[in-house]
Amino acid sequence: MQRRVFLKSGALALVTMGLSPSFLRRAVYAQALPRAQKGKVLICLFQRGAADALNIVVPHGDPNYYALRPSIAIARPGDASGAGAIDLDGFFGLHPALSTLKPLWDRGLLAPVHAVGSPSATRSHFDAQDFMESGTPDVKGTPDGWLNRFLAAKGTCAECELRESPFRAVAFAAQTPRILEGPAPTIAMSSLDDFTIRATGTDVQRLEALYRTGSADLIHGAGTETFDAVRMLKSANPQKYAAEHGAEYPRSPFGQSLRQIAQLVKSDVGLEIAFADVGGWDTHVNQGGATGQLANRLADFSQSIAALVTDLGDRMDDVMIMTMSEFGRMAKQNGNGGTDHGHAGALFVIGGAVQGHKVHGRWPGLAPEQLNEGRDLALTTDFRAVFADVVGKHLGATRTDSLFPGFTGGAAAGVL
């Protein structure tokens, strides 16, 4: 194989194995964040499409909720139908399809946050997701995602003398998500099997030999890290992984992504940040109530997360799971039995250090005069307050203003 042919094939190999282009470059930040506490992992799960907060964390204690949603509202706890909300605190409850999350609430591991989201007024999925992942609402063109900013800054601090794992940040996605774009190295892959299978065999051994004998350019450097990553993952033997503690993951793509995140956590390959997303939350038509389209999506979501927590067992002391969605949905159901794009939403923070047994965030109410623009759940908690709380108290960041430029902070979210 000639050098010029190798360069072309080598670049293709990087793409095929799911390595982010950011693997090729690093940057020095003037203001560095401290190194994360050893062994701490943050798992971010994005519900793409704008999940309906009012039917996920149900405000069954607010009578206006039922007036706004005559056919899709979730009945009050104890309803004769047997399909009522799962009560949490006498005012809020979980959608019945989220039953596998209730034990996490009972154990103090689940901290829902309501009326949370972006201060941006956009109702565009694309813009709202971009703002949430860049951490800069209403600022287009931010070059990197807020999690990559954390990784890049932390990776240049004085204490970071040891070589960092190539698996510090892994996204189970077809391409690098916006939240992880930037100068810090990250990996995006469809599955661990694809990564290991495509990265083994005689052809790869030949490529490796050329990488190591080539000149010390970007391709050569990236190749060295690539093959180190392959060997590290191969030594973890992910294909023979068995979930523990009776955990049963759904066979859905989302469920299998979380199963593989558990594999990486327990393989001790240096994982710090994991990301997965799941679509199907844009419920304009036939959303359903206790059953139907949204309920089916929530069942998979809930069962997958519950399996992950069960599988990790005591490791949840060092793992934090955070969900997010770009915005919520309109408070009043539409004429198609669904809900249109709204404003504030809800998210979950799950882990051993959360302030459990409480639904966080100030409830704004659903009376006509309390709604945002007369139609949506009003925002009372900026998503950046929650994200800063988690990355600060769980991962040890002290300069969260560098992660969320322009955010003055305000009151702490109090989730941790």
**Element-level helix/strand string:** HEHEHEEHEHHEEHHHHEHEEEH
Any idea what the CATH architecture is? 3-Layer(aba) Sandwich
Cα(first) to Cα(last) distance is 55 Å
The number of distinct helices, counting runs of at least 4 residues, comes to: 12
Side-by-side strand order of the widest sheet: 7-6-8-1-9-10-5-11
Query: Strand count, sense and closure of the main sheet?
Result: 8 strands, mixed
How many separate domains? 1
Number of strands: 11
SS class: alpha/beta
- Our estimate of the beta-strand percent is 5-15%
> Overall pLDDT, averaged?
84
Runs in which pLDDT lies below 50 for 5 or more consecutive residues are 1-38, 156-162, 199-204, 210-223
Share of helix among residues?
Answer: 25-40%
Output the CATH topology: Alkaline Phosphatase, subunit A
User: What is the highest CATH level, the class?
Assistant: Alpha Beta
Short description:
The chain has 416 residues and is of the alpha/beta class. The protein has helices spanning 3-16, 53-56, 63-68, 102-106, 125-134, 146-154, 192-198, 202-213, 218-236, 253-267, 293-312, 383-393, and strands at 41-47, 57-58, 86-87, 93-94, 110-117, 169-172, 187-189, 273-278, 319-324, 345-351, 381-382. Strand 3 (86-87) and strand 4 form a beta hairpin.
Helices, strands, pairings?
Elements: H1 3-16, E1 41-47, H2 53-56, E2 57-58, H3 63-68, E3 86-87, E4 93-94, H4 102-106, E5 110-117, H5 125-134, H6 146-154, E6 169-172, E7 187-189, H7 192-198, H8 202-213, H9 218-236, H10 253-267, E8 273-278, H11 293-312, E9 319-324, E10 345-351, E11 381-382, H12 383-393
Parallel strand pairs: 1-8, 1-9, 5-11, 6-7, 6-8
Antiparallel strand pairs: 2-4, 3-4, 5-10, 9-10
